[in-house]
Design goal:
The chain is of the alpha+beta class and about 230 residues long. The chain has two domains: about 110 residues, Alpha-Beta Plaits; about 100 residues, Alpha-Beta Plaits. The protein has six helices and eleven strands. Strands 1, 2, 3, 4, 5, 8, 9, 10 and 11 form a nine-stranded mixed sheet that branches. The chain starts with a strand and ends in a 7-residue tail after the last helix.
Length: about 230
C-alpha cells in the first residue's frame, strides 16, 4: 500500500555514471532498505519496490539535477528520510533535497519536459568556427533522420524536433563547450550523443546533464498533493 511519495533530487558524479538504469534504481532500493525505511511494493508474484526515475541517465554521463520518486508504505519525515538514506547511497551519488509529493498526483515522467546538457568537445577535433557552421546547418534543417541502436534493435526517428536549443557556449581549457536543450518527454526524448553525431562529432570529452525541467504543478495537481495529508487542527 502506498501511503506517501517522496521526491529526491541528487547529483551523479563520474564514479557513479557507470551505473545502468536498473543498477541505479537498485541502489536507491538498497539504500532505503539499509536506512530502515518502509518501502512500498507492487502486488503480484514478484513484488517490486515502487521507485521511479525521471529520465534514464545514459552511461558515462554525469548530472547535477536527477530526480527519483520513492513510495513508502508508511509516512516518514522527508528530512529524516534524507538523513537516513544519504550515508547508504553508493559513492558518486549525492542526495541534495527531499520533498513530499502527493501519492495520487502525476507521475514524475509525465511532468518532465526537457533536459539541458553541457558537452565538452576536444578543441583539436574541430575548430570553433567549424562547429558554429555545423550548428547553424543543423538548426536550419527541417528534418534530421537518425537511428538509435540498442543491442540488435534499431529505431528510426527524426532528431530535429527534439532539439530545442543548441549553441557553442565557451572555450574551456582544451575543449569547446556546447549547451544543448533537448526534449525529454515520453516517446520524444533527445540524446546528446545523437546530436553530436548529427554535428559530425564522433566522441565528446564529457557530457553533463545540468538541468531537468518539470512542468509547473497546476491547481488540480496541488489538490492531488493534499490528498492523504493530515488536516491541520
Amino acid at each position: 500500500m502506498k501511503a506517501q511519495r517522496l521526491r529526491f533530487r541528487y547529483r551523479v558524479a563520474l564514479e557513479a555514471s557507470v551505473l545502468s538504469q536498473r543498477e541505479l534504481v537498485g541502489a536507491w532500493e538498497n539504500a532505503a532498505k539499509a536506512a530502515g525505511l518502509p518501502l512500498a511494493y507492487s502486488e503480484g508474484k514478484r513484488p517490486a519496490a515502487q521507485i521511479s526515475v525521471a529520465a534514464p541517465l545514459p552511461l558515462n554521463v554525469t548530472s547535477d539535477s536527477e530526480r527519483v520518486d520513492v513510495f513508502f508504505g508508511e509516512r516518514v519525515d522527508p528530512g529524516e528520510a534524507r538523513a537516513l538514506i544519504t550515508p547508504q547511497l553508493p559513492p558518486g551519488i549525492e542526495l541534495m533535497a527531499a520533498e513530499e509529493v502527493g501519492v495520487g498526483g502525476p507521475s514524475l515522467q509525465s511532468q518532465l519536459r526537457w533536459a539541458e546538457y553541457e558537452v565538452e568537445v576536444p578543441a583539436g577535433s574541430v575548430s570553433a568556427e567549424g562547429l558554429r557552421r555545423a550548428i547553424a546547418d543543423l538548426l536550419r534543417a527541417d528534418t534530421l533522420p537518425s537511428e538509435y541502436r540498442r543491442e540488435s534493435k534499431v529505431r528510426l526517428y527524426d532528431l530535429r524536433p527534439l532539439i530545442l536549443d543548441l549553441r557553442l557556449q565557451e572555450r574551456r581549457d582544451d575543449a569547446l563547450v556546447l549547451c544543448m536543450r533537448l526534449r525529454a518527454e515520453p516517446e520524444m526524448t533527445g540524446r546528446a550523443d545523437q546530436v553530436l553525431l548529427a554535428l559530425g562529432i564522433a566522441q565528446a570529452g564529457r557530457i553533463h546533464r545540468r538541468r531537468l525541467y518539470l512542468e509547473e504543478a497546476q491547481a488540480a495537481v496541488l489538490a492531488y498533493r493534499r490528498l492523504g495529508e493530515p488536516e491541520e487542527g
